[in-house]
């Protein structure tokens, strides 16, 4: 499996992801995985940033591989981000801080819950609405 790591983003050739929001009508076309919201968005392959400033729509294409290579040169321990196992070992050695995986998982759950609530309500929902309207499905022990 080919993977690319970027702060805040994980992309894999075996993942399909389409999150379409109000701004998606302004994108060039949807032939790749994308995350789009009310003011812009990202497409993953190629990696592009879309936005609007006043009446002007624009996008910027980013060379991710070049970014990763340059970022690795600036890291004190570049191998620490090669895989989850490498990262865990480097954190045990005290070379890097552990990533906040629990917080990232909860943020992912908030997004997923928001998708379902948005569909149920037929409109966009804010993070505050998601937290207020979410119902726990946890089992009592």
Tell me what you see in this structure:
The protein is of the alpha+beta class. The chain has a domain at 1-62. It contains 4 helices and 7 strands; from the N terminus they run E-E-E-E-E-E-E-H-H-H-H. It has helices at 64-74, 84-92, 101-121, 127-133; strands at 3-6, 9-12, 18-19, 34-36, 40-44, 47-53, 56-61. The strands form 2 sheets. A 5-stranded mixed beta sheet has the order 3-4-5-6-7, with no helix packed on it. A two-stranded antiparallel ribbon has the order 1-2. Helix 3 crosses helix 4 (127-133). The radius of gyration is 18 Å and the shape is flat. The protein starts with a strand and ends in an 8-residue tail after the last helix.
Number of helices: 4
C-alpha end-to-end distance: 38 Å
Low-confidence blocks of residues:
1-12
Return the structural class.
alpha+beta
Strand element count: 7
What is the subunit arrangement here?
single chain
Major sheet attributes: 5 strands, mixed
The string of secondary-structure elements, in order, is EEEEEEEHHHH
What shape does the CA trace take? Answer: flat
Mean of residue pLDDT values = 75
Q: What is the alpha-carbon Rg in Å?
A: 18 Å
What proportion strand? 15-25%
Task: Identify the strand order in the major beta sheet.
Answer: 3-4-5-6-7
Helical content band: 25-40%
């Amino acid at each position: 499996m080919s993977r690319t790591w970027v702060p805040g983003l994980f992309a894999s050739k075996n993942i399909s992801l389409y999150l379409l929001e109000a701004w998606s009508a302004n994108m060039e076309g949807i032939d790749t995985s994308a995350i789009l919201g009310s003011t812009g968005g990202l497409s993953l392959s190629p990696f592009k940033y879309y936005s609007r400033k006043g009446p002007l729509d624009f996008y910027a294409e980013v060379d991710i591989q070049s970014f990763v290579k340059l970022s690795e040169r600036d890291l004190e321990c570049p191998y620490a981000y090669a895989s989850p196992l490498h990262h865990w070992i480097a954190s045990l050695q005290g070379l890097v801080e552990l990533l906040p995986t629990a917080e990232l998982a909860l943020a992912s759950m908030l997004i997923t819950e928001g998708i379902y609530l948005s569909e149920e309500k037929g409109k966009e929902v804010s993070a505050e609405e998601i937290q207020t309207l979410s119902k726990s499905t946890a089992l009592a022990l």
